[in-house]
What does this fold into?
Amino acid sequence: MPLVYEELRSMAASFLRGERKNHTLQPTALVHEAFLKLVDQSRVDWKGRTHFFAVSAAAMRRILIDHARSRGRLKRGGGWQRVLLDQEAPVELEESDWVGLNDALEALSKVDPQEARMVELRFFGGLTVEEVAHILGVSKRKVEADWTHAKAWLRAMLTSGTDE
It folds into this structure.
């Protein structure tokens, strides 16, 4: 843990940067909650540092989504917020955006699980095209094409407010 703690805390801080000022989760608490989830991962075959940070980012995402849902925030529709998927690294999202983006990602995973995993690695994990290609065992060109398609698909889902 001491070897990766500061990087995890930096990742958590970037996730929380756009949250409301009185948010009950702080970067340190988010890292600790994610770490507790990671310690319980007996079935994970760690494939290196990049894989560890991708799984960590996914754990933090799930914690923030659970937190947003527990606060009873509105889903897509009321209080609609723009979610930019053109970013190469994690972006600032309001709590209601986390829920909407998660719902859209779950819908994408039903249509194309590999694209959904790729979005999770790129968008939430902040991984490069090369790192994602290595983890998924596909070519760089495939990741670039899937990234373009997934962004368009998610953008359409988020703006339409439907899960089709």
User: Anything to note?
Assistant: The two ends are 41 Å apart (CA to CA). The chain is about 65% helix and 0% strand. Residues 49-70 form the longest helix (22 residues). Confidence is low (pLDDT under 50) at residues 73-78, 87-92.
